[in-house]
Model the fold of this input.
Amino acid sequence: DGLTVFPDDNDVFNLSSITMLVEGFGRKILLTGDQLSEHIVDALERVKGANGKLLKKKGKPFPVDLIKVPHHGSKANVQKRFIDQVPAGIYVFSANGKDQNPDPEVLELFLPVAQKRKFTMAFTNEDMEYVPQTKNGNEVFPRFTDNTTVKTLAQALDHLRKDENFKKNVTIEFRKPGAHSLVYSLMPK
Done:
């Protein structure tokens, strides 16, 4: 469907980043670093929790309260399976607007989710403008599956808001980058 096949990130440093599941006070937070989301889902299906049971049963969702979206929402690190298998109430896109992160193609993966439930997307982009990608000296802009091209995060979010369910079910918040209280301030009370 054009939404599920992105080239994988093969950068050793990104794939070596630490992923951490934090549980406490009845809440679950998944901190993903720059890891490949497929690896995260696979690990959740292999790792046992403190109770000795697997964290996630194969094919079953593993809901969490908050996810720091892998690698700032890069399309090389976030796959549809991750969005489907690890639902969250809050998705944090910790990015600074450089390197076109988050990728609009990743944001589009949330359209089907918005058809079913409410959630929050929190962005730390101080600047809503992307620096255009260049390929062989030509500017290359992200493209949605309906062939709409966007140059900025603001344009991408405006495009998604055209969907009535997205507009109704998705809360979008912006926070300054580096806000150490971001996770705490977003957690449901």
